[in-house]
Fold these 3 entries.
Entry 1:
Amino acid sequence: MSKQVAFIGLGNMGAGMAANLVKAGFAVTAFDLVPAALAQAKKDGCNTAATAHEAVAGADFIVSMLPNGQIVENLYIHNDKLLAAIDKKALVIDCSTIAPENSRALISAAEAKGIAAIDAPVSGGVAAAAAGSLAFMCGGTEMACTAAKPVLQAMGANIFRAGDAGAGQVAKVCNNMLLAIHMSGTAEALQLGMDNGLDPKVLSDIMLKSSGCNWSLEKYNPVPGVMASVPSSNDYQGGFMVDLMLKDLGLAMAAALASKSSTPMGAAARNLYSLHKNSDGIDKGSMDFSSILQLFAK
């Protein structure tokens, strides 16, 4: 008999993740507040539920992909009290990107009810969610993280246990802070080259074989037309939104404040993205984060 998975949160990331669980042979019951998202999940082979409580009935695994920590806590602990409806044999896998303290609150509340839970935020973006090639950064006990692997392997290519509860979230904000820093630096360097008459494709090829090589340059070039099938060549549509990058940079700054860590480059990247979002009198929050190039193009 197929293992039962409840999937809650069918946004840009969750939709592809749920579809890949179906492809891997899991029986998926999905729930989202948006009717169109539920309709797409049904097309992808999921059963659909009218409520989160209905979705988790009889589930072996509960996977959630939600916008922020307050929503996660309200769903599981406070308003909806979903933990009360989850079987003690089930495993909760929260893939939302939220503050470590939100994940620790969820995992602690679950454990108090005899339910295993982990935080498992992802890296890779919408394309990787659809392709099933996400990286998962897990926080929780070794036993719980090991138990989650069959589900995570259906959605991702790389699975890491970062440590105990909340550790996955810490790893995620560290990763995304670095991503913002090297995307900003890549855009700045490429624009400097263009301002001085260089072809951005030629300059990119040079830096790819030199010490400036990095992921943003290799996989996600921010200059339109240099690389096909990336958001910069599609008017910066799709991919990872500026608003989401700002959210993650805010989480990184909060984590730095809590640990009294020095993060001047992370703070600078956050300021640059904030300036970019509000530049030209237009809210650019829905554009892909590689659109930071536009800030330097001025």
Note: Residues 167-195 form the longest helix (29 residues).
Entry 2:
Amino acid sequence: MQVKNSYPIFLFGFSLFFGGSISFAQQTKPNILFILTDDLGYTDLGAYGNPYNETPHLDSLAKQGIKFLQAYSASPVCSPSRVAMLTGKHPARVGLTNFLVGERKDENSNIDPPADWTKGLDGSEFTLAEYLKTKGYETVFVGKWHLGNQKGQSPWEQGFDHSRMISKNGLDYYNYSIAEDGFEKQFQDDGTYYLTDRLTDYGLEFLKKQESERPFFLFMSYSAPHVLLVPRGDKLAKYFFKYEKFAGKYNPNYAAMIESVDDGVGAMLAVLEEKGDLENTLVIFTSDNGGVGLPELGPIPTDLSPLRKWKGHAYEGGIRIPAIFYWKGKLMKGKEVEAYFSNTDYFATIKDILGDEGIQEDGQSILPLLKGGEIQERAIFWHYPHFSNQMGRPSSAIRKGDWKLVFFYESGEKELYRITEDDSEAKNLASVHLEKAEELWGELKDWLLETKAPMPIIKASGRDFDLNSVSF
């Protein structure tokens, strides 16, 4: 499938590369196509049960590969999640705990967000792109970065050989700019070239031009379906025609935006198939955090039920995300995996595939899951000490095994859920299973102290929140 454009496709001015065939046993180097969406909810793909949105290419990818049913973002908002993927560190450890311009406060609250959280990914951090360059990879970034544009923070300074980064009006799909390997050269849209398609075409040009024997890492970071909900007009009609069939539960504009991403994925896979490269390409598809389930800059984008809440919350709707792995002939076909993991684990998993130790800071390799095995039960964590634009409150959380504990800084309330039986988080069991709640709080508290996570500020005293002051 080719993406429709309003003018000829822009060409990268460099040679592109691909590797040879591989197996896990050989531990040689596959190409890596990492596809990230922005605010795509857990329930938004047909493969995850959505009857309204049309995502045939992603549904096929899930049927041909591995679909995770309990994949998590390390944060309920964008920038911290991207930190986790690119560094293998938890955002709390890096100090980047909110999206970059997130300064929301609540005058009626007894706390303020941290004053000292980090506003960008420092150039001293070791990224997945920098690691892959040491392994001989050609590294390319396309799309939404949202990790800072100060000195040392941009993708061309964070290990990417070539970058096409959205640099202006990332929420406007027909009025934006894209920086090309730096801010000196920029493409500016004139209102005719749909942003999602533009990003896809950058990816397609990379894939079509590759001729070297070196492997590539292509990080396709779509801005869709993040609000504003601006779709291509030619994709809308069918969604309006079936709108009433679903009693107005779904959003036609949102569905059309997701379809454009799906078309882009299909187009890139088709090029890899035509070139005979699918057998040597690991494809990963996921989202940065949960979808938006309330009106934000327009009508409600999505319905994440039965999960509770949405983006900006430490409940399942804000942090559980779709995740699909596909590697033709190497991974299990049509496998659904119940085991949970966090997006801090991608870096370690890729290291493991390349024959290095499958650990990276806060991440652990999930390669055993990709091979049909198991991984040891462990705790995963969330820390969001901010007020989100989606009405989330400052909180931290831990999941370990069947259980999840959420702690709220304003009230000191702790909520305990048996997630495997109650993924809608409807029944707080903290008072029933007090010992389990205390156990998880102890682990969460120790982790927050160990990572030196930025703490909210108590307004009355002007001091950081004291974790040791919390009791049952």
Note: The longest helix spans residues 252-274.
Entry 3:
Amino acid sequence: MSERPALSVLAGVRVLSFTQFLLGPSGVQFLADMGADVVKIEPPGGTLWERNWSGCNLFLNGVSAFFLLAHRNQRSLTLDLKNPEGLAIARRLVESADVLVQNFRPGVMERLGLGWDEVSRINPRLIYASASGYGESSPYRDRPGQDLLMQAFSGLAGISGRAGQPPTPVGTAVIDQHGAALLAMGVLAALLERARTGKGLRVEASMLKAALDLQIEVASYHLNGARLEKSPTGLASAFHPPPYGVYSTRDGYLVLSMSPLSALARALPLPALDPYAAVPWNFEAREAVARLIEPVTRERTTAEWLERLVPQGIWAAAVNSYDETFADPAVQAVDAVEEIQHPVAGPVKLLRFPLELSTGRAEVRRPPPMPGQHTEEILRECGYSEEEVRRLRAAGSV
């Protein structure tokens, strides 16, 4: 445990989470880590999708690792939103909430009577944050929004990899997670705006805009007339000058970033680069430079190259496996991983909240909840008596 106090910049902020998959839950988890009281609303019976799927089919004592990674510091309330009484509870929760976050397909919350127009009449101070695949006014609003689909649609998968080879999607759900950060940022901005005006407002994020924002640099070059052509070599983008790319070594791979060719020529050493170094950041010589470097880097191991190049100011790094990444002293020094104890899953390692604030440190106040673990607690806070809670349970409303 950290000696710093628990991060509480959002203490007193009540968030209702009608979220699913990764983008919504991860965005809400950012708010929970900053101290918000997040109520995860899920269907009764443990049928929530995130509880029943996990990447690598990884379940810890039957608990989905996918659920665990995006639901810490939250309370679980089970509600049957197709049941009038369950829906009535949701509407009562809205009355005192500060924020509602939802990432169902456009139209779902409206059909439930929980759309922005309806809930803003119940609570004019409510901040209503939505995330969807393409945006609520898009002609594709009814299409599924999923990371790989959006990587393809937005052009992200098409800009990586080598020329003549299949497109190369990013190997993690990068659009989901960037969308989650944008969603949380929108909620924080809305809280500041409400503090000034006293009025609630709407926040809308989409996976499409998140995907495009990830490409802010390369897309801007394209929009302003640049020709973007992938290389058959290990050059890692279509717009950087050489040596920016991935190079084989004797035992693995090395990346070289944006180092002046004159310095690189001395460090390798590779005198054949000297003519190209006469032109600063020689973009036009990308292919020629890469082909000169490729056979040279194969002569030494990755560690030997780093020992040689880094002290000479060359921007170089090893291409690590996850084992190597998390064993590296630099990763250990930033204390990015926290191990928690879950009542069923047992010890679970999670990535920490990725920001540090001087007033406190985000920590796990609550492990990811079991289905409906806090239902009675939350209903009592809303004014329901123990007898009413028992009746609601018996009726299947919660």
Note: The first helix runs from residue 23 to 33.
